[in-house]
Amino acid sequence: MAQRNVSELAKDQRFEGFLLVRSSEQRTGGNGAKYLDLNLADKTGEVNAKVWDGNVTPPAVGTVVKVRGGTLEYNGRLQLRVERIRPAQPGDEVNVSALTPSAPEPVEDMLGELSQTIDGFASEPIARLTREMLRRFDEKLRYYPAAQRIHHAERGGLLHHTTGMLRLAKAVCGVYGNLNTDLVYAGVILHDLCKIEELDSDPMGVVRDYTAGGLLLGHLVLGVARLQEVANDLGITGEPLLLLQHMLLSHHGEAEFGSPRKPMFMEAEVLHWVDLLDARMNEMDTAIAKVKPGAFTERIWSLDRRLYHARYDECLAPEEPDENGG
To answer: Among 26, 58, 118, 203, which residue's CB has the most CB atoms within a 10 Å radius?
Structure first.
């Protein structure tokens, strides 16, 4: 019998099956008793789980466990109360592809889209810088997520985010014909590459934590540094390098979000907004997919609001005739 999807779980249900450990921590309650606080997931969603047994060893993040328990609601959020838990064993028939959220497009197709875009650059320095940066991060780019939790937190999510932004950027450049498309598209491709150094992810796309470099410097500063290293190796200096470095440094838009400089030319401003739009759309889509049409999500802390799953089918339904047959 197929196990229930996490996205289908509701209050007062039984669950038994295999789930991926996305976070795992032993905590101490107010009464001094130890318990496990877990976030368990399949490709459809994630649920918080509690193991009220202080003798259970916390499973490693990124591993698969078999759990049995029941669902309840606590402070308005669904929770899984785990009665039994054990690591997946070699003899278990675990469908790993059902447990790992993954980008909706093949990796090779997304990489090909980036490469084809670079092929169309008119600027040789920008093309060389962009292609060499991609080459240096190629192996991990194939599976890295774009974030630990907020948006595109999936296997291949960084590529998914980048290609989504690239398509948005091409649409924007079609409206504003005075933009330098090489700068815009290169900025999109390069802007988050150093999340690969900022986050500690396994090949399943599960982020265990931030790296020391990620916490001390962050991917914006790391990106500027790595781009300079590539430029030094290629013998590239001048305006193209400076502009791309500014775009990497300013793409979060505001100091409170990590950018020491605001975007100071149009292409940098476009990069900031297509980044924000693609991230927000993914985050909202993921949250809304977890509730039924006509229902509201729980509060999304990063957006500081609840979201509504609109009844789109009613918007498309034909209008009811009036009493006179009109």
So the answer is: 118
